[in-house]
Amino acid sequence: MIPQISKITELSENSSTATLFDNIEKLSISILNKNETAYLENKIEKDNDCTVFKYPNILFFSKIKEEKEKHLQVEAARKAGSKLFEVLKADKIKTIQLLNFSDVEYLPAFLEGLLLAGYSFDKYKKEKEEYFLDEILILDKEITTEQIEEIKELSRAVFYSRDLVNEPLSFLTATQFSEEIEKLGKESGFSVEVFNKNKIEALKMGGLLAVNKGSIDPPTFNILEWKPKNATNKKPVVLVGKGVVFDTGGLSLKPTEKSMDFMKCDMAGAAVVAATLYAAAKNKLPIHVIGLIPATDNRPDGNAYVPGDVITMFDGTTVEIKNTDAEGRLILADALSYAKKYSPELVIDIATLTGSAGIIAGGHAIVAMGNTKEYLQKIKKNGEETFERIIEVPLWEEFAKPLKSPIADLNNLGTREGQTAIAGKFLEHFTNYNWIHLDAASVSFRFEKDNYLPVGGTGYGTRLLFNFLKKINLKM
After folding, report:
1. How far apart, in Å, are the Cα atoms of 231 and each of 263, 365, 378, 476?
2. What is the pLDDT of residues 174-215, one digit of tens each?
3. Is 92 designated active site?
4. What Å distances lie between residue 311 and 253, 315, 319, CA to CA?
5. How far apart are CA 364 and CA 426, in angstroms?
6. Separation between Cα atoms, residue 326 and residue 266, nearest integer Å
7. Which of 53, 83, 449, 466 maximizes the CB count within 10 A of its CB?
8. How far is residue 407's CA from residue 310's CA, in Å, rounded to a whole number?
9. Is 452 helix (H, G, I), strand (E, B) or coil?
10. Which residues pair with 7 in a beta bridge?
11. Is 416 a catalytic residue?
12. pLDDT tens for residues 221-262?
């Protein structure tokens, strides 16, 4: 739930207040008495945050320490916002005033952290979340109403992404996923076209159809489009999201604990694409963006595809199946081939693709690769700004060798070693345009809360892609 947010011109004396500062000499502490001021100054020396209780309200102070890199200070402000939410929740405080005595970049991040920390998913709980922050009042001349609205709608988009990831397969089949995407399109203004199984068969999307063979539920292929009249790009940016709504591994069955049991999150890339289109449309970004989402579950039914099968992809490439748990790259490959029809300036796919991405990134970053140094550098910069960080790995030709097959054009597995890059190399085969691959397997779902990132779906990548689209300077 997103609270009401508005700007004010003066503080109310009878309301809880949160103050952000980077230098205590800038800080106006007239709201504290002498003893409280001494307590604050002593506490801030030991810790970045301090809460002073003035019943029935609280005064929350957060100092942003100087760092070598600016983006670390901005992230500290987001984390401070998350800590503020926990303080407010503990005392069930419904209204908070935000007061800024720091860099102009810190308050928007502080607000973002406060909003993102307020997420909860209690749809299936008998006892619902009782606390919600109702109102945020901001006293700061630098932040604009437009900035506030953008942060609100982007946070709402992240919430939608998290909701989709947290939904179980008992609700979120591929067909239901398409219906949820259509709802987001109607609410925000982007268009949606859904291909059913007959259309997918007619198009001969062999990767998506193969993965779906073991399921009793049909697949869908979703085309999302935001094309405002004032779009600055003649050639669209295409976002592709992996939409495996549940992944058992197919006949190459996964073990259960910490492997299959949370595989409802295997459509997190698709959720991020839908959420990014929502944020772009809600905030009326002047950029033509298309989203492609192939969706299915991957199950081991009697008619499921098996290791040793040879399938024919949408572009005619034949693929020998070595492992049915390497399914994400198959449905993405069909979508990447389909993207060629748009003559795109850039295609970005995002997917929970390989477990080895977690070995590389340790749960702290997306692993990226691609064929365009210019756009890779830009998205890495956006990753720092949003703190949805990126580690880049190369796509050397050596990573293509394990994908050779004696009976088909490619195999879908390669070797265990270098698997994240090998999977990227497989996808590269289906591209002929500027392309970036984002493997978000290690950051899309959490088992423990981390500041404003909750347990369950994180929405990681939504803020990254929105910020990238907002700031990118496309070639015309």
Report:
1. 37, 31, 20, 11
2. 999 999 999 999 999 999 999 999 999 999 999 999 999 999
3. no
4. 20, 11, 5
5. 24
6. 12
7. 466
8. 8
9. coil
10. 138
11. no
12. 999 999 999 999 999 999 999 999 999 999 999 987 888 999
Given a contact cutoff of 8 angstroms between Cβ atoms, the answer to whether 326 and 413 are in contact is yes
Of residues 356, 331, 239, 341, the one with CA closest to residue 290: 239
Q: In the numeric block, which tokens belong to residue 374?
A: 């210019």
248: its two tokens: 């058992």
State the angle between helix axes of 268-282 and 145-166 in degrees (0 to 180), rounded to the nearest 10: 160
405: tokens are 């097959």
Instruction: Judge contact between 321 and 210, C-beta under 8 A.
Output: yes
Q: Phi first, then psi: what are they for 433, rounded to 5°?
A: -145, 175
Residue of 83, 282, 299, 329 with catalytic role:
329
pLDDT value at residue 474: 62
Looking at 65-119, which runs of residues are DSSP E strands? 95-101
What are the DSSP calls for 316-346, one per residue? S-EEE-S-TT--HHHHHHHHHHHGGGG--SE
CA gap 246, 356 in Å, rounded: 19
Q: pTM here? A: 0.96
CA dihedral 364, 365, 367, 368 (to 10 degrees): -170
Closest CA to 18 of 86, 70, 69: 86
Q: What is the structure's pLDDT at 476?
A: 41
Coil vs helix vs strand at 154: helix
Both tokens of 191, joined, read: 């268009």
Q: How far, in whole angstroms, is CA 438 from its chain's centroid?
A: 11
What whole-number distance in Å separates Cα of residue 80 and Cα of residue 110? 6
Distance CA 416, CA 410 (A): 16
54, 254, 284, 381: which is the annotated catalytic residue? 254
Structure token digits, residue 57: 């309200």
Domains of the chain: 4-141 (3.40.220.10), 153-471 (3.40.630.10)
What pairs with residue 193 in β-bridges? 223
What is the number of residues in the chain?
476
* Residue 84 parent element (H or E): helix 70-90
Question: Which tokens sit at 271?
Answer: 């959720």
